[in-house]
Amino acid sequence: xxxxxxxxLFVLLTNLVYAQTKVVRGxxxxxxxxxxxSTTITEQENPKNIVITDANGNFNIKVGDRSTSLIVSSVxxxxxxxxxxxxxxxxxxxxxxxxLNEVVVVGFTAQKKITNAGATxxxxxxELRQSPAASFQNALAGRLPGLFQQQTSGQPGADAANxxxxxxxTYTGASNRPLVIVDDVEYPYEQLSQLSSNxxxxxxxxxxxxxxxxxxxxxxxxxxxxxxxxxTVSEPKITFRSDFGMQMPTIRRKPLGxxxxxxxxxxxxxxxxxxxxxxxxxxxxxxxxxxFKLGDDPYRYPSVKWYDEVMRKSALQQSxxxxxxxxxQNLKYFVALGSxxxxxxxxxxxxxxxxxxNYYLKRYNIRSNIDLNVTKTLTLxxxxxxxxxxxxxxxxxxxxxxxxxxxxxxxxxxxxTPWNYPVKNADGSYGGRKSATLNPxxxxxxxxxxxxxxxxxxxxxxxxxxxxxxxxxxxxRVILAYTNNVExxxxxxxxxxxxxAYLTGSDVLDPVFPELSRIEPLTLATTYGxxxxxxxxxxxxxxxxxxxxxxxxxxxxxNQLTDISGATVPANFRGYSLRAGYNYKSKYIIELNxxxxxxxRFKASKRNGLFPAVSAAWNISExxxxxxxxxxxxxxxxxxxLGTVGSDDFPSAYRYIYEEIYNAPATAANSYxxxxxxxxxxxxxxxxxxxxxxxxxxxxxxxxxxxxxxxNSKLGITFDYFDHRRYDILTVxxxxxxxxxxxxxxxxxxxxxxxxxxxxxSYQDNFSKNFSYFFKGNISLYKxxxxxxxxPYNQGNPLLMRTGRPIGQIYGYTNIGYYNDANDIANSPxxxxxxxxxxDLKYADINNDxxxxxxxxxxxxxxxxxxxxxxxxxxxxYKGFDISLLFQGAAKGSLSASTMFQIGNVNGIxxxxxxxxxxxxxxxxxxxxxxxxxxxxxxxxxxxxxxxxRLKNIELGYNFNNKLVNKIGLKNARIYTxxxxxxxxxxxxxxxxxxxxxxSTGTVEAYSSYPQQKIxxxxxxxxx
Length: 1024
Description:
By secondary structure, the chain is mainly beta. It is built from 13 helices and 54 strands.
C-alpha cells in the first residue's frame, strides 16, 4: 500500500510540474515581411493546443513549461517547426506553390483565398504603381475581372474613369456607383481619384452577395475595398521615388483648311437648293476661294488651324513620393509624403498680367499609419491622411447666345471655323468678327482663370483587444473615423477684350465691341463650398478559433455613419452586420453573411431591412482520392453564393421621398398682388407628392465559380457565372399623363436582370535562376435587360418600348444603303417628312406599311457602355532587368457619331472624312451621304463600334546590383521608364474621336471633352 501511494504521489507531482505553463509570443510573416493571418500555431508536445495568428500576424500561446517547439503551418506555405528561444519570435514562412496563399480583404476583415467562398478579385499596390496615371481609377483598368471602366476625359484633376462592377444593374444613373471602403471605413466615391497608388497595399473587388451582404443597404453595386500600406518589423527604410513624364493627346483633331472646307460647304448649299453666296457672303466666290487656296492674304482670307494655335504637342507631368517604413514588435509605422503636378495641354501665351490660364492639377498627399502594441493583448492603430488639391482651368467667356460652352467643342465645331478671322490682324490686334465666338488665343491671354481648392483630412483610430482570457480566438475592436472636406474657389476673370475685323473691301479694322475702348479690369471672386464631414463609429466582435481540424469564425459589427453637409440635416446610417463561418481542414466551407441596417432616407417604420447571404465551397483537391487520381491539378475549389443586398444611392433630389414637397419660388409666375398698396407676395406651389411606402432598391445575387491551380501551381484559372436581379428600382411613373397637373414621386417597381461571366487566367514560371516570366489575362461579359419599368404602351411603335431592352439602348432607323437615282426613290417606300434625293440615306421599312416614318424606328446597335471588358499582361525578369506590358480593351458598345459629321452648323466643321461623301462619281466608294439632305436622324449608319484595345501600360526597369549601391549608402536603387495609353487600336481614327469619348446617351458632342492623354514617363526609386 505504501508503495502504491508513493507512485500516485509521484505522478501527481509530475503532472503538477508539467502543468506549469509559459506564454510564447511572436509574429509570422512571409518572405516580403507581410504578416500572415490565420496561421496555425500548434504546441508540438500537445497537438490539441492550437491558436491562430491575428490580422497583424501576431500570436500568443500558452505552452507547457517543458515545451521546446512549435509547429507553424499556413495554407500556401511550407510547414515549419520552430524551437522556442528568446521572445518575441519572428517566424518567416516560405511560399509553397502547391496551394493558394493569397489574402483577400472582405467586409471588416481579411481571409485567405483558399477559405473564401465569395467572388473577389485582388490587385496589389505594387502593380498599380507601374502606371504613371495621376488618377487612381485609371491605374485599375484591365487588371481586375468584373471591373468595367470608362474614361471620358483627360483633363487634369477631372480625368478619373467611371467605374462599374459587373456592369449596369439599374437605370437610375448614379446608383450604379460601387461602395468604396478604405481600411474598413466608408470613403467618398468622388474622392477616389485623389488616392495615391504609393499609399496602397492592395485593392479588392467584392462582387457577389457573400462578400457584399455584410454592407447591407449599401452593397448592391459591389464594393471596392482598399487596404493601405502599414509598417513592418524591420529597421527603418526610406524610399524616394521621382517620376517625370510627358502627356500627349491620344487623338488630335484635324479639320480641313479653309479652301477645302468652304468648297464642301458650297457644295452642300447647292445640294440644298440655296445660294451659297448668301449663306457665306464673300467667302465662296472664285476670287475668295483662290485666295484661301493660295494663302496670299492671310488677314482677309485666313485659314487658321485653331488646334495648333492653342495646343502644344506635350505637357509636363511630375510626381515625387517619399515613404518611411519600419518598426519593432511593439511599434510599427508607415509614413508617406507625395506630390503630383499635371500640367495642361494649352500653350503658354505671353501676357502682361501674372496669372495662369492653363489647365493643371496640383495635389499633395500625406499619410501616417501607426501600429502600437499597448499591452500584450491590446493594440492601437492610428491612421492619419490628408490630401490637398488645386485644380485650374481657363475662364471661357463667350458673347454668343447660350453662354460659354466647352473650349474643345468650340475648336472643333462650326462656331470657330478656319476662315472666321485671323489669330491676329496685321497691326497685332486680335482678330474677331461680330456674331462669332471670342478669339481663343485672346481668351488665354486676357480672360483669366477659375481655380478650385479642396482640402481633405481623414483620421481613423482603431483599438483591438484580445479576449483570449474569455475564450480563445475572441477579440473586440472599436473604430472611430472622421473625415473633413473643405472646398473653395478663386477666380480672376474678364468677359471681353478688344477684337477687330476687316471691313469688306477695305484695309479698315472695325472694332467688334465699339463700346469697349480699353481692356476691362480683371474681376476677383472667391467662392466657398459647403464643408462636408463624415463620422463613422464601429464596434466589432471577432472570433476565430481552430479546434483540431475544425475552424470556426464569426464577426458581429455595429456600424453608424453620419454625413454632415454644411448646415443641412445630417444623413444617418445605422446597422448591424454578421458573419459566421465554418471550415473543416480548409476543405469544406460554409459561410453566412448578413446585415440589418438602414438610412434615414426612408420613413422610420420602414427604415431598416434584412440582407442575408449564404455561400459554400468545396476544395475538392484536398480530397485524398483527387490527389491520387489527378495529381497535376494542385488546387481546385468549387464555390457558390446566393443572397440579397440593397442600394439607397439614388439621385439626391429625392432624399426624403416619404415627405410631401412644397415649393416657394421667388418668381413672377408664382406671385400675387395684395392689399391697398398692391404688395407683391410670392406664392407656395405643390411639389412632388409623398411616397410613404418608399424603400431601397434590392438585388438578388447568384454566383457560381471555381478556382483552379495546376502544373505545380504555375497556371491559375478562376471562372465565375453571375445572375443578378435588381428589383424595387425607384421609378417615376410615366403612365400618368402630364395633364394631371401633379408631380409624382418615384416608386419601387422597376426590375432589371443582369447576367454574365468572368474568366481570369495567370501563368508564371522560371526558365532559370535568373530568368522568370508571367502572363495574366481576364475577360468580363455582362448583359442586362429591363424586365419592368413604368412606361405607356406605344401602340404606334412597340419597338420604342424600353422594357425588354438593355439599359442604354440606342434607338434609330435601320440603314440599308443610299438612294442611287430618281428611279430608286420612286420604287422605294415613301419617306414621310423627308425630301430625299440620290445620295441620301435609305432606311428599312420595318413595319412594312409602305412608308418611312416614326413607326420604323427601333433598337439598334449595342448599349453605350461596352458589355465586354478585358485585359492581359505579360512580363519577364532577367537578373536586374524587368519588363511588363498591360493591354486593356472593351467591346460590344456603340456610339452615335452623327453630330460629328454635320457641317455648316454648330456641331462640326469639315474634316478629312467629309472628302469621302457621296457624289454621282463616288457613289460606289462613298463613306458618307451627300452633303446636305435629311441624313442626320439616328440610324445604324451613324453607329460606330467603341471596340478598342490599348497598350494601357508598359514598364521597363533595372534594379542596380545591391553590392554596388550599398557602397554609396543605399539599400537598393531602380531606374525605369513606363507609359500609359501608348497605342490604341480601334476603328474611329479617321473620325478623330477617342473610343471612350461619349456621353451618357451614347452620342459624341463634337469632341467636347478635354482630349484623352497618353503619358511617357521616366522614374528613379532609391531606398536608404
